[in-house]
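User
Please review the sequence:
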Amino acid sequence: MDQHKDSLSGLEFVVDVKPDRLRAKSSAEITDQRMESVVGRLLKAQEEECRRISREIHDDLGGRITEIGLLIQHIKKSAILPKKTVSELDQLRDKTIEISKVIGKLSHRLHSPVLEFTGIGIALESLCREFQAHTGIRIEFVPGSKVTDIPDEIALCLYRIAQESLNNVAKHSGAKTVRVELTRMADEAHLTIRDFGQGFTSRTRRKSGLGLISMEERVRLLQGTLQIQTQPGGGTRVRTTIPIKSRKTLPNSHSKRAVGRG
C-alpha cells in the first residue's frame, strides 16, 4: 500500500450529493435539479465539441503539417542545393516534426482515443506516463481490480478529474512525487490522487478558476463525492467516489507499478 504514512489535518472541501426519495421535493430542489440538467447538457456538449475539435486538429492541421514535411523532402531530392539551403531545410523539417508532436498532444488532451477504445485503466496509465515525461514529476500509478468494467460516463469523469488534478500538481504543488490510485468496488469507483508538495490554502483554492468548479459539477451530476484534503507543506489528496448502478464485473489482476519503469 502507500509507502507514505501520513494524515492531512488541514483544509478539507467536500462535495457530497446523495438522493433523498423519502420526502417531497421543495421548489428549491426542483430548481437545483433543473440546473443540474442544464449543467449536464453543457458538459456533454463540451465533450462533443472537444471530440470534434480534436479530430479536426489531428486530421486537418496534422495532415497539413505532414504535407509540408513531405514537400521539404521532395525539394531536397529534386534539386541540387547549396549546403546552407539544405541545412535550413533540415531545420525547417525538424520544426515541422516538433509542431506535429505538439498537435498530437493537444488533440489527445482534448479527447483521448485511448480512453474511448481501451478503457479508463490504460488511459490513466498513458496520461500518467505523458505527465511524467513532460514535467519530470514521478508518478506511481496503482490500478486496482475490475477497473476495466467502469462505465464510460464515470470513466470520462474520472479521467477529466485526473487531468485537472495533475495539471494543478504541475502548476502549484512543487511536488516531486505523485501517487494515483484507481479502484472499483462492487458498486463504487474510486480515484485518489496524492501529491507530496506544498499544499494550498483556501485563498489558493479561490484562484484555481473553473477547473475545480468543473470537477465538482462532474461529480455532482453522477451523485458522487469529491474530497480535497490539503495542508500547507503537507501536500494534497483528491479523492473521488462515484456510485455504479451496475454490479456486473470483469476479471482483472491487481497490479502496482511506477510509470516509466522498465
User: Anything to note?
Assistant: The radius of gyration is 22 Å.
